[in-house]
Amino acid sequence: MTATDTAKPQIITGKAKLAGVLGWPVAHSRSPVLHNYWLRRYGVDGAYVPLPVEPDAFVAAVLGLQAAGFRGANVTIPHKEAAFKIADVLDHSAQRAGAVNTLVFEDDGKIHGYSTDGAGFVASMEAAGLNPPKQAQALLLGAGGAARSVAAALQDCGLRVAVTNRTQGRAEELAKALPGLDVVPWNAWEQRLGTFSLLVNTTSLGMEGGPDAAFRPSLAHAGKELVVADIVYVPRITPLLAEAQSAGLHTLGGLGMLLHQARLGFQKWYGVNPEVDAATEAFVQESF
Ligand SMILES: NC(=O)c1ccc[n+]([C@@H]2O[C@H](COP(=O)([O-])OP(=O)(O)OC[C@H]3O[C@@H](n4cnc5c(N)ncnc54)[C@H](OP(=O)(O)O)[C@@H]3O)[C@@H](O)[C@H]2O)c1
């Protein structure tokens, strides 16, 4: 970001375009920082606000925002499945993810739902110049909501995808939802790493304040070309990424996914296709 961008005031007139993020809790969300940065940068008359909404109040809140003239909203934990249910129209990404993180209130009164997490991950890989070949095999650690959207997006790019999860039943459920997905036992993935060209951590392991912030698995069996990605973005370099870097492997952190997943909503609500560049990344990074 340039000094000119930081100096630009936000424009919020009586015609301002409004959106926000629904979550419970929502205080940790970086989306308000990001969207308001873009609003200032592109001189859009608009605002983006955090919307702390308890699960029981989700439907009333969405309908209330729509009645109040909002353009739509992002949806974060724990509302992504409720958002899937409330949408009148689900695009391909939402159907594949079984969840919605972006709601758009269209002029005809219909609520459209999208899941942009998986596409955000793929876009962040592409932006980093890490395009795995189509026949590549990816291994995902985790079988939660983020895993499903990333797995679906990678499959849609033509990759063969496997998942491994502490709770094996959850990985098997995921394999039922996404045909073609392989399941690797949690206690065997480190030994089988040599068959994969992309490893993605989609668990909360390695996250500051998460279940095990020190999570640093062995990459001793990795091939030389393995790309190691972590969708955790606090800290920026997780212990897994540090291990990969010390082994001389290509790595990708989770901040790019966070920034890229936000683009579709911004474009739909505010009418500008925002750029994810070093300035955007630096601005959001400063908020941590
Ligand atoms: N970069 C981004 O834009 C972005 C977007 C979405 C999410 N994320 C991050 O992705 C992570 C997962 O999010 P989510 O929504 O998918 O959460 P989720 O649905 O709650 O899934 C959590 C996953 O972590 C695993 N896990 C938790 N504690 C574990 C432990 N002690 N040992 C082994 N596995 C453990 C769970 O395994 P079990 O099934 O065995 O419990 C599950 O696979 C979070 O850190 C979130 O911040 C990042």
Automatic annotation (TrEMBL):
CDD domains named among the record's database cross-references: NAD_bind_Shikimate_DH (cd01065)
A single GO BP: aromatic amino acid family biosynthetic process
Reaction(s) this enzyme catalyzes, per UniProt: shikimate + NADP(+) = 3-dehydroshikimate + NADPH + H(+)
Top-level taxon: Bacteria
EC primary class: oxidoreductase
Record keywords: Amino-acid biosynthesis, Aromatic amino acid biosynthesis, NADP, Oxidoreductase
Pfam families, per database record: Shikimate_DH (PF01488), Shikimate_dh_N (PF08501)
Classification via Gene3D superfamilies: Leucine Dehydrogenase, chain A, domain 1, NAD(P)-binding Rossmann-like Domain
EC numbers for this chain: 1.1.1.25
Membrane is among the record's keywords: no
InterPro entries recorded: Aminoacid_DH-like_N_sf, NAD(P)-bd_dom_sf, Shikimate_DH, Shikimate_DH-bd_N, Shikimate_DH_fam, Shikm_DH/Glu-tRNA_Rdtase
GO cellular component: cytosol
Active site: 80 (proton acceptor)
Residues annotated as domain Quinate/shikimate 5-dehydrogenase/glutamyl-tRNA reductase: 134-247
GO MF, any single term: shikimate 3-dehydrogenase (NADP+) activity
Residues the entry annotates as binding shikimate: 29-31, 76, 101, 117, 233, 261
HAMAP family for the chain: Shikimate_DH_AroE
Biological role stated in the UniProt entry: Involved in the biosynthesis of the chorismate, which leads to the biosynthesis of aromatic amino acids. Catalyzes the reversible NADPH linked reduction of 3-dehydroshikimate (DHSA) to yield shikimate (SA).
Protein family membership: Belongs to the shikimate dehydrogenase family.
Subunit field text: Homodimer.
Protein name: Shikimate dehydrogenase (NADP(+))
Organism of provenance: Acetobacter ascendens
Name of the coding gene: aroE
